[in-house]
């Protein structure tokens, strides 16, 4: 990926990494101005804008000139924790239970080194907060024992957590992620991706095709 980005820069692309986009303004009939933190004027002008900023999608859409508020979906957050299993285990493939409301259910994943990890659970929270929730060991031991009755719970250790950008709130029926183009918001050259939770990564190539189609540049 780094080599690809270096090639893109060598070919004249301007890449802004670790830079917060603060605003998108209509520059002329065919281009958008991209404003970043700390700069008064737009630093990039682009014909096509994809708002693919995860939890930052709704805030950036709100800071997009002419974006109707009614086209921006509400934002909710569900934290998912993972526990790692420190020790030998008998697994060679991933194991999924029946899904639970808000998530896939605490499942068993294996990393590239073959280490086992259980998660993610579902904890509805009010905003983006990556602190690992306390007192989750017992619930994880119970969920993990459904997959592996012989598991030693003392070998489970808090590992990491992620936050799903949800479009539906706790208790509501689950909303799919949303790809909003001109027919939804009326703005030429902008596609906004909202609620890109799982399986957004798995579906990323199909989502990219759909975005290209929105711009009329599909293969
Ligand atoms: C616990 C958990 C488990 C998951 N498991 C799976 C799975 O098993 N399979 C699967 O397919 N998917 C899974 N997902 C979903 C997957 O992680 C997402 O679909 C994917 O990361 C979405 O990619 P994205 O690029 O749209 O957004 P993100 O990965 O969220 O990236 C958005 C980026 O934009 C940046 N950003 C935000 N605002 C701004 C701004 N104003 N200016 C500049 N940059 C900004 C953010 O810092 C971030 O780097 C899981 C998600 C979670 C939370």
From TrEMBL:
Annotated ranges, domain FAD dependent oxidoreductase: 2-213
Cofactor(s) named in the record: FAD
Top-level taxon: Bacteria
MF-aspect GO terms: (S)-2-hydroxyglutarate dehydrogenase activity
Keyword vocabulary terms for this entry: FAD, Flavoprotein, Oxidoreductase
Pfam families per UniProt: DAO (PF01266)
Similarity remark: Belongs to the L2HGDH family.
UniProt name for this protein: FAD dependent oxidoreductase
């Amino acid at each position: 990926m780094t080599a690809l980005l270096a090639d893109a820069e060598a070919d004249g692309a301007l890449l802004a990494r670790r830079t917060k986009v603060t605003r998108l303004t209509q520059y002329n009939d065919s281009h958008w101005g991209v404003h970043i933190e700390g700069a008064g004027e737009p630093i990039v002008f682009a014909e096509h804008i994809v708002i693919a900023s995860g939890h930052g999608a709704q805030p950036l859409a709100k800071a997009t000139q002419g974006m109707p508020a009614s086209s921006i979906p509400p934002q909710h957050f569900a934290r998912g924790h993972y526990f790692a299993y420190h020790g030998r285990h008998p697994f060679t493939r991933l194991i999924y239970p029946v899904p639970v409301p808000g998530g896939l259910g605490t499942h068993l994943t294996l990393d590239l080194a073959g280490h086992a990890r259980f998660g993610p659970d579902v904890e509805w929270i009010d905003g983006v907060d990556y602190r690992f929730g306390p007192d989750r060991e017992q619930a994880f031991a119970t969920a993990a024992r459904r997959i592996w009755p012989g598991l030693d719970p003392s070998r489970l250790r808090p590992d990491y957590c992620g936050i799903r950008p949800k479009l539906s709130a706790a208790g509501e029926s689950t909303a799919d992620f949303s790809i909003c183009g001109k027919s939804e918001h009326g703005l030429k050259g902008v596609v906004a991706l909202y609620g890109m939770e799982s399986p957004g990564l798995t579906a990323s190539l199909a989502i990219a095709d759909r975005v290209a189609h929105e711009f009329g540049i599909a293969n």
